[in-house]
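If you are new to this repository, start here. Below is one unmodified record pulled from the training split, so you can see the exact layout before writing a loader.
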Amino acid sequence: MNLISNSMRGPWTLFKKELLRFWRVSFQTVAAPVMTALLYLLVFSHVLESRVQVHGVNYTSFLIPGLIMMSVLQNAFANSSSSLIQSKVMGNIIFVLLTPISYLEFFLAFLASSIVRGLVVGLGIYLVAIIFIDLPMVHPWLILAFAVLGSALLGAFGIIAGIWADKFDQMAAFQNFIIMPLSFLSGVFYSIHSLPPFWQAVSQLNPFFYMIDGFRYGFLGVGDISPAISLSVVGASFFGLSLITLRMLKTGYKLRG
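And here is the target side for that same chain:
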């Protein structure tokens, strides 16, 4: 029995194409981010483990959820953005646009593949990290909710970036001047309560802070802010970016001549 209806065959095929695209180079798209996160863990935990406690937990336990979520977000963004910019530069985006796939199906296929890549990278880091430390899961449903919603948000942002950018250096600007700073200034390596009041307020303008803090709360049961607030901010951000993305796809902005 065919489990995929004819109406879903197009988006399902596009989804599988995007999965195969990153999985065929999994040494680069999965193994490399896991190794990078492991290096951060080894360096920071070695230096600060005996000197710092955050929210009453040891520093390594505090650090690991932040590293996992940071990698999930960065790789979800990289998946959709790199696919679109490569297709535009190489000129093969036309073969996708000519298919009878609606803009909504296009969006869902790219979004789903970004979520899968983010979750695969996050799971890989978690499996390596628990070799070094026993990491609790106080609220598993929060972990899953923030991982899926966060990777979906960055997947949508990656689509926007991929559509807007015309060259690889423009895409690199997104990564270097938006994604990386927001990631590193989101409380991955520290609690925002350790900052002066002004910088605490600035940190709370960063949507990455809510994704990482809520994800960390799922593991440890403690955080800098209520997980309900974090979930609301992340959900609203995803809704807003999704509307922008769908509008760009519907109008064919920088995709159709």
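Two things worth knowing about this chain: The longest strand covers residues 53-54. The mean pLDDT is 91.
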